[in-house]
């Protein structure tokens, strides 16, 4: 399953107002209803609270790679997701980041639609 990218602010806001699942390195939010496109889309939010530009870009790269590995197998098709980074994402071991992402997606998928 291919994962698209969220680019427009209204799409981010809609996804962030839905269901949420927290992990040490990030907060994962999912829209409460499927999108009209029928494809899974993902957006990233990394604020300046996380660190300077170098740290923020590193966190985005780590989260992007983790999502490439996890989302095709665990995300529900047709929903929009937003990954909101936390400061721990920069130093968290990558394998734990992958496990956290799998767990977060499974928690969100267990909720009724």
Any descriptors?
alpha/beta, five-stranded mixed β-sheet, 113 residues, globular
Measured by DSSP, the beta-strand proportion falls in 15-25%
Please give the largest β-sheet.
Answer: 5 strands, mixed
Q: What is the H/E order?
A: EHEEEHEH
- Average pLDDT reading: 92
Tally the helices. 3
Please state how the strands of the largest beta sheet are arranged side by side.
Answer: 1-4-5-3-2
Question: How many β strands by DSSP?
Answer: 5
Low-confidence runs of at least 5 consecutive residues: none
Structural class: alpha/beta
Radius of gyration: 13 Å
The N- and C-terminal alpha carbons lie at a distance of 20 Å
Principal-axes geometry comes out as globular
Give the fraction of residues assigned to helices.
Answer: 40-55%
Account of the 3D structure:
The protein is built from three helices and five strands, in the order βαβββαβα. It has a five-stranded mixed sheet with strand order 1-4-5-3-2, sandwiched between helices. The longest helix is centred in the middle third of the chain and has 22 residues, at about 55-75. By secondary structure, the protein is of the alpha/beta class.
């Amino acid at each position: 399953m291919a994962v698209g990218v969220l680019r427009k602010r209204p799409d981010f806001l809609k996804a962030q107002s839905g269901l949420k699942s927290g992990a040490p390195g990030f907060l994962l939010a999912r829209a409460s209803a499927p999108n009209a496109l029928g494809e899974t889309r993902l957006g990233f939010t990394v604020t300046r609270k996380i660190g300077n530009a170098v740290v923020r870009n590193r966190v985005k790269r780590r989260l992007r790679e983790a999502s490439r590995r996890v989302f095709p197998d665990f995300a529900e098709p047709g929903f929009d997701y937003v990954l909101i980074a936390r400061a721990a994402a920069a130093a968290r071991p990558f394998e734990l980041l992958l496990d956290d992402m799998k767990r977060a997606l499974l928690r969100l998928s267990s909720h009724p639609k």
